[in-house]
Amino acid sequence: MKPQKRVAAIHDISGFGKCSLTVALPIISAAGVETSVIPTAVLSTHTGNIEGFTYRDLTEDILPFARHWKSLGIHFDAIYTGYLGSYQQIGLIEEVIDLLSDEDTLVLVDPVMGDYGRMYALLGEDFPQGMRRLCAKADVIIPNYTEAALLLGEPYRDGPYEAAFVEKTLKGLAQLGCPRVALTGTWLEEATLGAAVYDAQSGQVTYAMGQRVDGPYHGTGDVFGSALLGALMNDKPLGQAAQIAVDFVVGSILRTKEAGTDWRYGVNFEAGLPAYIRALGLV
């Protein structure tokens, strides 16, 4: 049996409302990958359309976590970053990547900054500049179109998108210094939605598409990113990994819609884990 791979996931953790670490831990673990965590903050719930949440900032703990791991000689096959609550945390994560990465460590950055054309209110105007630096350290980035616009300093455009616009955006993002991009929220026609994938080394653009389901569904970006990383850790090519992740997300949304669950509470990804494991060829 091959040695088990290990991921360092650096995200906040919300006690309720499926996102960030409460999504990353079960999905990446289901992919057969050991998942170690650096929590950047602890919240009672996520902050999307839920009032009265508690929040404890863990910025001061980020580097001590990483330094302790380094002192133990722990090897990580991947480092996975998501929502960061301040400009200061971006700089700290850059240090963590330098500290914990080896030559074969995959760095996946989800440059979480906004959605639907708006940057999250708690983030400062300097945040996109810092996120550009972090993306330059990554091997794979997974922005949505709002985040792509912020990273490129361009106006936001809603879909449907023309293939020429999608491919121009992908290549612009790769020029930030990251060789592989999965651009989420891509739709070229009303019926489908998914991700456009670009590999700067080969110049190839591929599309991973699934059924488009109307309505906002909280946490789907984290579900996609976690499922994508799990597939990459199982040696799936980026395009195939993106399709596996899209299929997993679509199934999660459809189950949630059918059950009539409050969209703020996250999607039912748990019931799709057996199919995800089969898609990875683990059973």
From TrEMBL:
<dbReference type="GO" id="GO:0005524">
    <property type="term" value="F:ATP binding"/>
</dbReference>
<keyword id="KW-0547">Nucleotide-binding</keyword>
<dbReference type="GO" id="GO:0005829">
    <property type="term" value="C:cytosol"/>
</dbReference>
<keyword id="KW-0418">Kinase</keyword>
<dbReference type="GO" id="GO:0008478">
    <property type="term" value="F:pyridoxal kinase activity"/>
</dbReference>
<dbReference type="GO" id="GO:0009443">
    <property type="term" value="P:pyridoxal 5'-phosphate salvage"/>
</dbReference>
<dbReference type="InterPro" id="IPR004625">
    <property type="entry name" value="PyrdxlKinase"/>
</dbReference>
<feature type="domain" description="Pyridoxamine kinase/Phosphomethylpyrimidine kinase">
    <location>
        <begin position="30"/>
        <end position="260"/>
    </location>
</feature>
<protein>
    <recommendedName>
        <fullName>pyridoxal kinase</fullName>
        <ecNumber>2.7.1.35</ecNumber>
    </recommendedName>
</protein>
<dbReference type="InterPro" id="IPR029056">
    <property type="entry name" value="Ribokinase-like"/>
</dbReference>
<keyword id="KW-0067">ATP-binding</keyword>
<keyword id="KW-0808">Transferase</keyword>
<dbReference type="InterPro" id="IPR013749">
    <property type="entry name" value="PM/HMP-P_kinase-1"/>
</dbReference>
<dbReference type="Pfam" id="PF08543">
    <property type="entry name" value="Phos_pyr_kin"/>
</dbReference>
